[in-house]
Amino acid sequence: MKFKITNPNYKSLNSKDTSFQMTKKMIQCIALSLILISCSNGSKNETIDQLVSEKNIKGLNEKKAALQADISKIENALARLNIKKDEALVSVLTINDTLFTHYIAIQGNVNTKENILIQPEFSGTLTALSVKTGDRVSKGQILGRVDDAGMSQQLASAQNQYSLAKTTFERQKNLWTQKIGSEIQYLQAQTQMISAQKAVAQINAQIAKTIIKAPFSGTIDEVFVEKGQVIAPSPTGLMRIVNLGKMYVSTAIPETYVGKLKLGDDVSVDLISIGKSYDGKVRQVGNYINPNNRTFGIEVSVPNPDNLLRPNQVAKLKITDYVNKKAIVVPSGIIQEDGENNQYVYVVENSNGKTGIAKKVVITTGKSSDNVTEVLSGLSAKDIVVTEGVNSISEGMKLNF
Fold first, then answer.
1. Which of 19, 181, 187, 334 has the most CB atoms around its CB within 10 Å?
2. Which class would CATH give 87-99+326-400?
3. pTM of the prediction?
4. β 266-271/136-137 pair status
5. Which whole number is the average pLDDT over 289-317?
6. Dihedrals φ, ψ of 203, to 5°?
7. What is 148-209's CATH topology?
């Protein structure tokens, strides 16, 4: 039996499609009848309005459960019968084994151990300032001098006393060798010489503190004092010296990654502010869990060949924690989830290169990284998955690509 719909926007249906539509409508009618019957039965055969007016919570919950069960049956029946026969234009991708790497993505701060404020060891007037902002200096280079407050004259006097004590000791020693004089005279001369020698060394050590030297090689980033200024240790110091050759990134990692990171692990360091990426390595892993945020610290050494890294820059770290050399991966955006919380994708069956049939395949997923997800089961190499148009297709639909 065939019939025709006069509306030109509709195509004629064959008897198979008519039977499908009639069966679908019959199920809907039966389901609706079940819902109406369930509404009239329930707790003590009372209506919903009566239960509401009586504030019968138990009865209302029973009716709600019955209605939800009926609705679930209807949806399952419609899902089995509602197989579209239309066609759809989609994009597809042929799956191949590939290298899959998962990263821990976390933010950190660039820093250096050689970034300090130079403080004077001796208070007084700054008599010499040998550097300015931006100067490159070497370790041990003299940066300035502080007035020694007369210690140079004290040193000259102490050296004269040491010279006399030394001469006296040597003569007393010669006499003692010849068995002339007493032992106590020899020992007194020796003690006086040693004391004078220590006095000279002590004054030299104090004078050395008046000389300001670079503790390491680097760049004078900023100078805070002027020549002739009276200086003393302060929070600002005399100047800042920075070495950009030994940079690292410090950050805190959740405790769930304890044991997954080790010294020497490769790390990708992205500096968004300068648009640069660097390859670093884990150089330190903390042994203490911070009880406030349940994290432990790590440090990642980073090369700085172009001197573009600066202390306190923000860096994005990608720390490799999982590698699968032969992984099946799909774009994360094509994975869907059905009413039973099953993850699935659509694959192409009976492909002839340009067309095929859509098939729903339930999959088990692993880790996700860089907009792709590892598929542990459900797919294999050479399978063709639908990547675009997945929201407009259903199982059994003809696909054009």
1. 334
2. mainly beta
3. 0.56
4. unpaired
5. 92
6. -65, -40
7. Helix Hairpins (1.10.287)
